[in-house]
């Protein structure tokens, strides 16, 4: 079956599905394979649950609704690329080391005030998520917003081939996924694949003027630069407050780094003619989710819960922010930063050195990487595992404190909340 024929079958159904646990009636089901599952084995179940067609790549599982292809993942990607070419809508693509999802959600909140938008759901930003996002766009959609994640070279290039973005934005170049990229230069190269794609296709890029490396890399491109002369930071001691033209905007996002994310959403909204008042409503109404920079209160404590993710750049951003935040009795509970490869030891020690030089509170550092660091400071304590930490952490020792909780996803530091 050609991609064109596959696309016709796809259009005749309603929506795309890859998981029988959340099938929708009449959907076009693609049976993907993962490390621990083989979607082909769900072909019958998918039909029973109402799938209109089921794309498989193992003949052994065929039934009256299946379409056999050589490789289902390739079929998904080719179908998405084909679908995208037939969508007459601008697509804005975002990548970067930190803040992609937050910025994507903010941009979507802003643009959806004026347009029918479809944006990446949650964090579905990889070689499967990007095609699924594109296939969820229809002829009714007026604008697409696609998050692209990468942990090695050529990933963004491949995702751009599929999504064919008209606009792009890179949140930042930071020390994330060093294992796959090798170094910060590797990160810059990897993320810049978005620039290369946009430039080759004569498309437009949004640039945060505070990012000098980005300014340099986009010099010869069609670009829209935004900076503090257009969007001003008014306050970041609590939730970030900004001023855009004559409008003050009070977000519900904590952390100075969120200023950049908000500024991008404002600049992009303004570029696409969303009225100032609606930009304000959109940003003010956005509440962060999934343990991303949430401000909580529990048992008399103030808590900054940022347990969604961590890497050296976002960790330092969070520490700088916490240092400046208003509050007394500051306590840090930090977890290991994953995917650091050979840089792990150095990067964790760097955080410890920073904490030695900036002793703004007690610091509990959890995980085998932090446990390997060296410190003589009495306010810093390291633990090999969360269980070790849990054994020694006594909630009754703390009264009316201000906690910053941050670590990589795998550390699941939101568990600290149960201890308080
Ligand atoms: P992922 O790689 O998991 O997709 P992401 O790039 O989508 O991550 P977010 O989920 O938006 O990023 O934010 C994750 C964390 O990154 C936040 O909780 C915060 O600690 C940090 N962060 C967010 N924005 C920035 C930024 N502009 N600069 C530095 N750190 C940031
Ligand atoms: Mg994300």
From TrEMBL:
What reaction does this catalyse? D-alanyl-D-alanine + UDP-N-acetyl-alpha-D-muramoyl-L-alanyl-gamma-D-glutamyl-meso-2,6-diaminopimelate + ATP = UDP-N-acetyl-alpha-D-muramoyl-L-alanyl-gamma-D-glutamyl-meso-2,6-diaminopimeloyl-D-alanyl-D-alanine + ADP + phosphate + H(+)
Residues of the signal peptide: none
Checking SUPFAM superfamilies in the record gives:
MurD-like peptide ligases, catalytic domain (SSF53623), MurD-like peptide ligases, peptide-binding domain (SSF53244), MurE/MurF N-terminal domain (SSF63418)
Question: Sorted alphabetically, which keywords does the UniProt record give?
Answer: ATP-binding, Cell cycle, Cell division, Cell shape, Cell wall biogenesis/degradation, Cytoplasm, Ligase, Nucleotide-binding, Peptidoglycan synthesis
Query: Which positions bind ATP?
Result: 96-102
Does the keyword Cell cycle feature in the UniProt annotation?
Answer: yes
What does the UniProt entry say about where the protein is found?
A: Cytoplasm
What top-level branch of life does the organism fall under?
A: Bacteria
What EC number(s) would the UniProt record show? 6.3.2.10
Q: Name one GO biological process term.
A: cell wall organization
* All copies of domain Mur ligase central, residue ranges: 95-268
Name a Pfam family for this protein: Mur_ligase_M
Q: Which InterPro entries match?
A: Mur-like_cat_sf, Mur_ligase_C, Mur_ligase_C_dom_sf, Mur_ligase_cen, MurCDEF_CellWall_CoF430Synth, MurE/MurF_N, UDP-N-AcMur_synth
Which HAMAP family does the UniProt entry name for this protein? MurF
Q: Which family is this protein grouped under? A: Belongs to the MurCDEF family. MurF subfamily.
Annotated protein name in UniProt: UDP-N-acetylmuramoyl-tripeptide--D-alanyl-D-alanine ligase
Q: Which organism was this protein described from?
A: Marixanthomonas spongiae
Gene symbol? murF
């Amino acid at each position: 079956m050609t991609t064109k024929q596959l696309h016709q079958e796809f259009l005749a159904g309603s929506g795309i599905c890859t998981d029988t646990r959340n099938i929708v009636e009449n959907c076009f089901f693609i049976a993907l394979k993962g490390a621990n599952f083989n979607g082909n084995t769900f072909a019958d179940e998918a039909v029973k649950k109402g799938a209109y067609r089921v794309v498989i790549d193992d003949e052994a599982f065929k039934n009256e609704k299946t379409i056999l292809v050589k490789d289902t993942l390739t079929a998904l990607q080719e179908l998405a690329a084909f679908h995208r070419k037939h969508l007459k809508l601008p697509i804005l693509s975002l990548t970067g080391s930190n803040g992609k999802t937050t910025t994507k959600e903010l941009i979507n909140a802003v643009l959806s005030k004026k347009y029918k938008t479809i944006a990446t759901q949650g964090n579905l930003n990889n070689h499967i998520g990007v095609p699924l996002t594109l296939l969820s766009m229809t002829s009714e959609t007026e604008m697409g917003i696609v998050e692209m994640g990468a942990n090695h070279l050529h990933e963004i290039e491949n995702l751009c081939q599929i999504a064919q973005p008209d606009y792009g934005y890179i949140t930042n170049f930071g020390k994330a996924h060093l294992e796959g990229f090798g170094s910060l230069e590797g990160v810059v190269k990897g993320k810049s694949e978005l620039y290369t794609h946009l430039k080759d296709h004569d498309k437009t890029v949004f640039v945060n003027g505070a990012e000098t490396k980005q300014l340099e890399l986009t010099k010869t491109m069609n670009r829209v630069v935004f900076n503090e002369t257009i969007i001003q930071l008014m306050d970041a001691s609590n939730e970030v407050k900004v001023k855009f033209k004559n409008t003050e905007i009070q977000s519900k996002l904590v952390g100075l780094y969120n200023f950049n994310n908000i500024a991008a959403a404002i600049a992009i909204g303004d570029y696409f003619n969303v009225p100032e008042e609606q930009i304000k409503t959109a940003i003010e109404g956005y509440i962060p989710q999934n343990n991303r920079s949430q401000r909580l209160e529990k048992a008399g404590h103030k808590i900054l819960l940022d347990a969604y993710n961590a890497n050296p750049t976002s960790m330092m951003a969070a520490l700088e922010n916490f240092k400046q935040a208003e509050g007394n009795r500051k306590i840090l509970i930090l977890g290991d930063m994953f995917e650091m490869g050979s840089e792990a030891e150095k990067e964790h020690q760097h955080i410890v050195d920073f904490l030695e030089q900036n002793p703004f509170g007690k610091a509990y550092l959890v995980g085998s990487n932090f446990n390997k660091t060296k410190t003589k400071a009495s306010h810093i304590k390291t633990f090999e595992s969360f269980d070790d930490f849990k054994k020694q952490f006594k909630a009754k020792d703390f009264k009316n404190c201000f906690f910053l909780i941050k670590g990589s996803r795998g550390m699941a530091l939101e568990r600290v909340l149960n201890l308080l």
